[in-house]
Amino acid sequence: MSKRYIFLAFVLLASAFGLTRMQDKPDSNQIPANELLLEINDPAKYQSTHQIAKRLIERDPSLFLIDIRTAEQFEEYNIPGSFNIPLEEIMAPEWIDYVDQDAIDVVFYSNADVYADQAWMLYTQQGVQNLYVMKGGVNEWFNTIIQPTPPLETAPTEAFDLYAFERAACIYFGGASAGVASAPAPKKAVTVRKKEKKAAEGGC
Amino acid sequence: MEELKRTRRITIGVVVFIAVVIMGFLTIKKPLHVYQYTPTEMAEELYMVYQVTPEEAMELMWDSTAAVFIDIRSIYDFEKGHLENAINIPVANLLDEEFKSRFDQWLDDSTLVVLYGNDELQANAPWMLMYQLGYTNTRTLMGGSGYIDKLYEDALAENETFMVEDPAVDFAAIIKAGSANSTSGAVSAPKKQVVVRKKKKKAAEGGC
């Protein structure tokens, strides 16, 4: 065996070894920054208080609410049916299975939406799907569901439909039912404009 | 003669292989952005204060050497009105190559980079992303530009605050008062059984 072959064999083995080392993935399972940016920019990550209320009333089994406020705040008030994981503990291994659930929509909420968004971010970057943030948080929940404000008289009918829903949800979730403000019957002056029948205009 | 041909072929084969491997090493594309913080580390960072109050912002706005304000809203929102001396980088373009050198420069100079949107929420996730990519000189603006606009226009509602995460009303008291008045009993939803569905770890599916 000439020296040349021994040397070549050695270099070959060294490069093969180097290649296997190259496949070392980084420890953390973070998704690439570009993908994460797409998720961040996607408005579908938000759920409104109305959507959540509707799903709760319908007892949607695919909804799982996580309250990321402190235990005291959770005790004081929480959206019925929600589960408490304080933001400080959100990364603890015992909670991973509550956040990472296959087909279930996990919705984070806090008093507003900033802290919930932080929880959302911490897990979405690990590749967890179906995570959402309730826009406005409990403050908005109280604004819209528990203490809904009647729309102005000049508002479109959709606003009144929404308000009717809000009042129904208010009764369901235990807020005081405020005075009724139903949509004012619109007095439509129905003008029937008779279409003048134009004689067929011939070409000229 | 035969023996010589075979050994030469082996040599050529091995040399070519090594050359390919070396070429591969040389042409590896380094990713543009590399995470400096894992999610767990970032969760720890969240204990610190990385927000700028509207008051601080209004002082920093006029001194472009102290801080840079980056408006992460769309071009249209930016044109409608933006904070003084702000630069517009819509969220989708934050990681573009053309801005990387500027971000690196700001990091080197330790300039404060304040990301802001209409409210604090809009800038929160982009800020976390930039921070985790190593730009630890970034901050968010509490209340966003929306709060400052309202301040200027004197349009702040009575209890409006930029500390949005504080409870706006006394939740417990209102619910108590509500349940005292309401007659219906079907108020609180039944306690949900928390079913934790364990994700089945799929074994690596090989090709067939």
Major sheet details of chain B: 5 strands, parallel
The number of helices of chain B is 8
How far apart are the first and last residues' alpha carbons of chain A, in Å? 104 Å
Strand order of the largest sheet of chain B: 1-5-4-2-3
Main-sheet strand order of chain A equals: 1-5-4-2-3
Q: Stretches of chain A where pLDDT falls below 50 for ≥5 residues? A: 178-184
Mean pLDDT of chain A: 85
**How helix-rich are the residues of chain B, as a percent range?**
40-55%
Give the rounded overall mean pLDDT of chain B: 85
Describe this structure in words.
The complex is a heterodimer of chains A (204) and B (208). Chain A has 204 residues and is α/β, with parallel strands linked by helices. Chain A is 42% helix and 9% strand. Chain A contains 8 helices and 5 strands. Chain A has helices at residues 3-22, 33-40, 49-57, 71-76, 96-99, 114-124, 137-146, 157-173, and strands at 46-47, 63-67, 83-84, 105-109, 131-134. In chain A, strand 2, helix 4 (71-76) and strand 3 form a beta-alpha-beta unit. In chain A, helix 3 (49-57) packs across helix 8. Chain A is flat and about 105 Å long. Chain B is α/β, with parallel strands linked by helices and 208 residues long. Chain B is 44% helix and 9% strand. Chain B contains 8 helices and 5 strands. Chain B has helices at residues 2-26, 39-45, 54-60, 75-80, 97-109, 120-132, 144-153, 171-181; strands at 51-52, 67-71, 87-88, 112-116, 138-141. Chain B has a 5-stranded parallel sheet with strand order 1-5-4-2-3. The two termini of chain B are 45 Å apart. Chains A and B meet through helix 1, helix 2, helix 6, helix 7 and helix 8 of A and helix 1, helix 2, helix 6 and helix 8 of B.
